[in-house]
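Much of what follows relies on a compact textual record of a protein's fold. A complete example follows; check for yourself that the lines match position by position.
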Amino acid sequence: MMPRIVPLSECAFTVDFGDEISLQTSELVLTFSAAVDQAAFPGVVEVVPTYRSATIYFDPLQIDSTTLIKQMQAVIPNKSHAPIHPATTHFIPIWYGGDAGPDLVDVAQQADLTPAETARLHASVTYRVYMLGFSPGFPYLGTVPDRLAVPRLPTPRRQVAAGSVGIAGTQTGIYPQASPGGWHLIGRTPVRLFNLSRPQPFLLAPGDLVRFVSIDEEEFAKLSGNQA
């Protein structure tokens, strides 16, 4: 079954690989996105992969959508033979609870666990970066253990500190910059996920893997002073 192609505007369309959020769907999206990048189709400006789809932005003065779609159909991967996308594993330190994680106790109560058990359970999983979005470098990570899958806050915070780690449903994520946010905050990392002074500003990329490593407040303060 071919993916569904949905026009968005005169300069963008989405290639939708289905309704399921899964590892297989993510592999299809990333394989397709990489193939488009490598093909260097004339007029393509950017490819943006998400959980279930990839959006193609193009210059309509260089190529029309009908021609581009025909070209891209040649690089759409076979659903039954999607290769495994090469993954880089990142170990991200996190200070759980305290001032860094004001919602850890609430999440623990909803999970019928202690805060320490909640932190250990959250750190026990290898998470996949399914997509970046919301703000520059914000990773949508999955999948949170069912017991920790809490909904978004009824009222979002007006200000969330940079590095805050939150949970919303089956997702966990890290706020790269200070911003409003509605996720349950369980901790904070001193690692900078987005930094324009680096050759590659984004630390994480779709398809990467993340393991959280618990640290205490003292180590958090020390690492915060060493971030480039």
About this structure: The radius of gyration is 19 Å. The chain has two domains: 4-81, 89-224.
